Every structure is written in structure tokens, then in C-alpha cells.
Amino acid sequence: MSGIVESAGTEAGGRPPAGQGGTVRRALLDAALEVFTERGYTDASLAEMAARSGIPVGSLFQHYGGKQGLYLALWEEFREEQERRTAATLASERGRGVDDPVVLFVAGARAYLGGAWDNRRLGRLFAEDDGPSGFDALRRQWDRAWVRRNARLLRVDERRRAGRVRVSVLTTVIGGAARELADCVDETEAREIVGEVCGILVHLSTPPG
Q1: Tell me, what's the pLDDT at 59?
Q2: Which residues contact 202 (CB under 8 A, 6 or more apart)?
Q3: Residue 117: closest CA among 10, 44, 23, 207
Q4: What span, in angstroms and rounded, lies between the C-alpha atoms of 43 and 37?
Q5: 80 contacts 90 by C-beta, under 8 angstroms
Q6: CATH number at residue 78
Q7: Residues 150/109, Cβ–Cβ less than 8 Å
Q8: CA pair distance 128, 73, nearest whole angstrom
Q9: Distance (Å, whole) CA 68 – CA 61
Q10: How many CB atoms lie within 10 A of CB 201?
Q11: Where is the HTH tetR-type domain (predicted)?
């Protein structure tokens, strides 16, 4: 699998109106994403989000409590989708009998990077330094959990500092590539980035012998 598959509606910014099959929450989140990506978090206006979604500001507060709640809901959605995509890929690979930790790790990384491309508008948003108070700490917490999951996948002894450093470097490579994909506009180039990075990961994740 290439991991580079365009998700319908994600980059185009289109959404069904609230009265045509879209839920209130979906309409609010889609409007929030549009405004956040255009204005940044600090300058984003709740009134503009409400106007674009066609839903009253009061309903926005009822569902999300304000601008911070909308931003964090988008982050949670992005994070959960990346984890779901990666877990599904690993389950599929294991179902085919794949047991090599490096092969599994690279397959998971390819799935994650595919998600970074598919959801690049969200990726661009979260790569910015303009977010709600406490978001950086939340992101660092998730990054640490990500490193621990990768260590288990690669069967690295986390008690050894060298092993922890190796997994941290590998995870940083994936995160850096995801940020590049967030800024990418060409699918062919995105495929090249994913292929290049996966080749690097194969090399770096092989234990020294």
C-alpha cells in the first residue's frame, strides 16, 4: 500500500450543510478548521465559525465550550485517526504473518505518513506555534507516548539509554516528514517523500550488529 490516498473532502474544505446530512458537531468542526487555518488560533473568531457553519454561537458553546474546545476536538480527531490508521495497518500485516519488528514499524510509519498527507490541513494547523494555552504540553505528552509505542513495536529495551535514543530519533524522523507532507501540494512529491523516509527508517531501525 502506498499510504497516499486522497480523502474525500479533506483538502478541498467542502462540507455538507448542517441540514443535508451533516451533524451539528461536524459542521462546527469543519467551520473551525477553515477559520483556524485562515486566521490562526489567536485571531480566529467564534462569530465567523458560527456564521460559516450556519449554527448559532450559543450552540457552539454548548457543544465545545468555546474556541479552545474546538481546537482540542480537532486535535483529538486528528490523533485518533492517525492511531486508528496505524493500528489497522499493523493488524493487517500481522494477519498476513508478518512478525519482523522493523517491517512492522516501517509499515506503521507509512500508514502514519499517509494520514499526514490525507489530513494535511490539520497537520499544518498543529505544526504552527499558535495554539491554546497548554497545547504544547499536551502535544509533548502524546509524543512521549508515541515513542514508547514505537519502542514496544521495535522490541527495544527501554531500560537501555541507547535504545531509547534510537527510537526517539526514528520517531523524530517520522514527525519531521509529517510536517513536510503537511506543506506538500503535489501527490507525486508526497509519494516520493514517503518512499524516501521509509528507506531511511529501514536503515536507521536496523539494530547495530
Answers
A1: 87
A2: 102, 106
A3: 10
A4: 10
A5: no
A6: 1.10.357
A7: no
A8: 17
A9: 10
A10: 21
A11: 22-82
Give the DSSP H or E segment for 52: helix 46-53
What is residue 209's predicted lDDT score, i.e. its pLDDT? 56
Question: What pLDDT score does 207 carry?
Answer: 66
CB under 8 Å to 163, separation ≥6 — which residues? Answer: 151, 156, 157
Its sign, for the CA torsion 46, 49, 55, 61, is negative
What was the pLDDT predicted at 5? 31
Which one-letter amino acid corresponds to residue 90?
L
Residue 120, φ and ψ in degrees, nearest 5: -70, -25
pLDDT tens series, the chain, 209 aa: 333 332 333 343 334 444 433 488 999 999 999 999 999 999 999 999 999 999 999 989 989 999 999 999 999 999 999 999 999 999 999 999 999 999 999 999 999 999 999 999 999 999 888 999 999 999 899 999 999 999 999 999 878 888 889 999 999 999 999 999 999 999 999 999 999 999 999 998 876 65
Q: Is residue 38 domain-resident?
A: no
The rounded distance, in Å, linking the Cα atoms of 144 and 102 is 20
Does some domain include residue 44? no
Range of the domain at 144: 73-205
Assigned C-alpha cell, 102:
522493523
Tell whether 181 is covered by a domain.
yes
Whether 167 is in a domain gets the answer: yes
Cβ atoms of residues 199 and 191 within 8 Å: no
Cα separation of 188 and 15, whole Å?
26
Domain count, the chain: 1
